[in-house]
Amino acid sequence: MGRIGLLGYNMGLLTTGGFIGEFRHSLDDKGRLTMPSAWRSKGEDAENYFLALPSVEGGSSAYVRVLSPKRIAQLEETISQIKTSDLEGNRMVVELMSMAHQFSCDKQGRINLNEKLVQHAQIKKGVVLVGIMSTFHIYSEEFRDAAVAEGPSDPTTRAAVFQRFGL
Fold first, then answer.
1. C-alpha angle with apex 32: 50 to 93, nearest 5 degrees?
2. Contact 140, 123 (CB under 8 A)
3. Residue 18: helix, strand or coil by DSSP?
4. Which CATH number does the domain housing residue 29 bear?
5. Structural domain for 108, as ranges
6. Contact status, residue 61 vs residue 55, Cβ threshold 8 Å
7. The dihedral of CA 10, 16, 21, 25: what is its sign?
8. Per-residue pLDDT tens over the stretch 75-84
9. How far is 43 from 62, CA to CA, in rounded Å?
């Protein structure tokens, strides 16, 4: 993929501002949370469409991964390549999608998650949203605080990973 595609110039990512940074919010009485205004679509309604999936990690490392329209299209293409004869692959897709939740922001920028995802991430009231360009993660505040308290990653490991990504 070329640099233009990676940065999203022609894919709407910069129209929405991308998902960058960390934001703390609380679930309201109806189980909704407010998406940061910088992350909300400023363009077409097609950009106000998201897919929330459970993380592979469980327990205190669990979170909800939210995909942008660009990433949804990539996932759809990947899933369409699974052969009917791949029973394990199909079973895992069914398991994943049975917990998935599609949504868009309302006019106030609020979103909601289904109960399966809230339970998976063990979200009670406080949530932390962490932007990762074309996706973002939703963590329970308690789990995110515990991870941050562990301190930053080892600088040597961080440098090696950043180098892998050309940073």
1. 40
2. yes
3. coil
4. 3.40.1550.20
5. 3-164
6. yes
7. negative
8. 999 999 999 9
9. 32
